[in-house]
Amino acid sequence: MTELEHRTPEQEWNAWGTAEGASPVGEEVRTLLEQFLGVVRRDTPSVDRPDVRVGASQLSDEVRTALAAIVGEDGVRTDDHTRLLHAGGKSTPDLLRRRAGEAESAPDAVVLPASHAQVGALLALCAERRVAVVPFGGGTSVVGGVEPERGGFDLVIALDLRLLDELVEVDAESRTATLQAGLRGPEAEELLGKHGFTLGHFPQSFEHASIGGFAATRSSGQASSGYGRFDDMVQRLRVATPNGELDLGRGPGSAAGPDLRQLFLGSEGALGIITEVTVRVHPKPQEVESEAWSFPDFATGAKALRALAQNEALPTVARLSDEAETMVNLASAHSVGAGEQSGGCLMITRYEGNRIAGHARTSELLAASGGTSLGAEAAEQWSHGRYHGPYLRDALLDVNAVVETLETASTWSKLTETCDAVRGALTESLEAQGTPPLVMCHISHVYPTGASLYFTVAFARGEDPRAQWWQAKRAVGDAIVRSGATITHHHAVGTDHRAWMTDEIGDLGVAVLRAVKSTVDPSGVLNPGKLIP
Amino acid sequence: MTELEHRTPEQEWNAWGTAEGASPVGEEVRTLLEQFLGVVRRDTPSVDRPDVRVGASQLSDEVRTALAAIVGEDGVRTDDHTRLLHAGGKSTPDLLRRRAGEAESAPDAVVLPASHAQVGALLALCAERRVAVVPFGGGTSVVGGVEPERGGFDLVIALDLRLLDELVEVDAESRTATLQAGLRGPEAEELLGKHGFTLGHFPQSFEHASIGGFAATRSSGQASSGYGRFDDMVQRLRVATPNGELDLGRGPGSAAGPDLRQLFLGSEGALGIITEVTVRVHPKPQEVESEAWSFPDFATGAKALRALAQNEALPTVARLSDEAETMVNLASAHSVGAGEQSGGCLMITRYEGNRIAGHARTSELLAASGGTSLGAEAAEQWSHGRYHGPYLRDALLDVNAVVETLETASTWSKLTETCDAVRGALTESLEAQGTPPLVMCHISHVYPTGASLYFTVAFARGEDPRAQWWQAKRAVGDAIVRSGATITHHHAVGTDHRAWMTDEIGDLGVAVLRAVKSTVDPSGVLNPGKLIP
């Protein structure tokens, strides 16, 4: 059997990304952690690979043979290492678990279909044989979306879509491209680049996440102000289900009833497997302009972003850090103590393509809204480190600290309330556990009616760091829901947000999702335990 | 019982709009109809009101009492005239039928709820008593959407939402407003205007259509280039169903699973009654700039629109008529024979609010794309007559001609193919019936990936004009579907497009819609015979 190869390097089993990306924290950071968060100086490394307890595969020869009849022998993997690489996603609890050597719940097999037809055949087979199916793209979920839950079935397979990696079609005139679901971010960009196009979708997970995952989770990228959310980009999508296939989207706009694409966007593998999407593309920008700004406080910066959004003056990237995040970013950029930094909030702006024409007008609005230009450098620095954040998390996990992120979105009129509610809930819960946190926040997705709020929280590792985090997470989720905001702006639901779905869409909304699931997946094998309460 | 009153004047029972709007065609037009379409000079007036055969109400005293217990005695109308006013929509076949005195299928009652709670109670009652419910806003459907079909039930009521006419809330900071579903276009604008806002939604039906109807049909207005489609404007919506209510939309963007708002937008009353929507609003524009352009041909004009859309340079209104429509519009504007007109295609552009800043850049792109500016006048003329089109249809029906419209949307790369396919199917079918048509086309909704195509077709009235039109309509629908375009861009499905819904969303898509309907409306009383094949 060949090694499981891919154009995009495999992620580490116990960390974000690849070993090359790792960067251990230095003495200075350890001192800061000690001073500000009370982190006791102690190494908390991952177990070594041989010490990981990977559950044994329960796959019977009969089911293996049936799977192999569809995808070939080489398409059915049951070795421990491949199954370990599909044992879950990349949330902090996921990583803590794998660092502790726990992989008992690894899937019974990893199956590699190479076409839409093979996906359809696999789903029909799994429905018949009652095998749970967890679709797997880049494996970057931070909400338990790729957790190999059995959901009452005896077997669970990870359906790894990496072989669906073709650029199917480019329609240069209509500026659309049809991409297969298994393409990773960089691969899609490389293929589109040959035609002079870009997708413009650059979430922090870009280097590993897949096109299908972007669609299935309603991903939103760092350049969403210029290129939109991923769900907005999708013109057409092809979905395989145990009960047949769907091919949805027949025009740039339509009034032919409900927009069923919007049922499968965000469906997280629970209603079908997205195998192909047709998305808007843009000419690859020849020039890029960047400018960083400083605002006296977060509220003033947020008001400036609102002015841009409501005056159709957004750059391609617009991103505002609160005071705490600004301080930490500057400290880490200059490798100096945070105490030396001046206050204020950093805003990053970046202009590509058509948006360059509006740079001057945007700058005028930002200046009029209380901003001070810092020039291009700080913005370019952000750009260079834009995918690095998750690596820092692993480094901190090594030194007895815990970092996790969460996000929401709210209307402009409730943004401060939501922000305060989240910060309050995190602080209160972790303080009560004896580990007062550092909470940082930024806005990175801006709409005329409101904005996202993205929080990074760091705290000293307690005795049971997973329980410690879940206690805080539950308090935050409740606070978000009480404030009227959404439980997730772009991380999706997975297992972690499932408890709040009833708050989000109501009992009848949940009943509607269940009815749809019963129609496309009557046996319930698709990604059990995700999305639907 | 009081007269059925409303701030917006009632439409005529046998024509579009009000009697004041009517304008009979003159001698010159009759001569042109004779010369170009072979229309035999003959008056074909509507029957008089006393000659209309309004079916008798079958409402039992028991059901009436139960309905009245919810909405009061005054909220249950069974008089012939009120029922006639709810006997269907405003498609040409609808008008031909009523002009012939056929109103046997009028609903058994018109019921007037005054709140969301009353709507919910009525739906529960109707589900229990097995009474079909047809929601009725402005009654402007041109696809049979408000046809009082019984769907196998003994009774059918029209649920007239006119009493749900409040502006519930304005959130000036987030630029959203919450509107009740029964508000008509002008009423909503008047209420929002007091707060300095506009919705920016101005479809040709604006003067009579309702907010709930805009949402339930995915309406798109003439200013969609600037303000978007109605479905894009909706942040939140409240829906009453026989099985409870839905309150959907908790943030400016969300990844909390499928976007269930998109199931109820475009649901045409078949999945619930939308009682309230929260929509984006915009500062009421202080200035407006208009400019008309001439293009040598439709393809060149379309390419110019594509350049605008793909370069983020669209005005608020962008509208391109083909050669035939340009000729007829100019002829009717100047009251001269069409033969005197020069060729070419007219494009209307209009700039409001933020878009004014882009006028110069847009003009540059249009000039570079082969356009010649005609100045403001022709564009302002269009603006003055923008809601007049449907009145002309009634005038032509009086003089032995038939006019109807239909629309679709296609990607830029297939736009010409779709346009030719529609024109070909209409021409072929009506020629085969001995009545070669005049087919006019315009683009009025433009996207980066494609555009709408709106067709107006005029022809000599045959012996059975409804059968004559349906033969053509069937051929066109098939042609649209074959070309890969959508069966409707903004008129919705109703009864008329139902036959093509399987082409649009596939068998499994239809099964999904049925499953959703079974969940929210298990007895099937909601708007039978619409939307779902």
TrEMBL record, chains A, B:
Composition bias type Basic and acidic residues, residue spans: 1-10
Which cofactors is this protein said to need?
A: FAD
Q: Which SUPFAM superfamilies match?
A: FAD-binding/transporter-associated domain-like, FAD-linked oxidases, C-terminal domain
User: Which annotated residues bind FAD?
Assistant: 135-141, 217-220, 268-274
Biological process terms from the Gene Ontology for this record are: lipid biosynthetic process
Tell me which residues make up the FAD-binding PCMH-type domain: 103-284
Residues noted as binding substrate in the record, renumbered to the chain: 393
Give the positions of the site Important for enzyme activity.
Answer: 319
Question: Which Pfam families does its entry note?
Answer: FAD-oxidase_C (PF02913), FAD_binding_4 (PF01565)
* Ranges for region Disordered: 1-22
GO MF term list:
alkylglycerone-phosphate synthase activity; FAD binding
Similarity remark: Belongs to the FAD-binding oxidoreductase/transferase type 4 family.
Q: What is this protein called?
A: Alkyldihydroxyacetonephosphate synthase
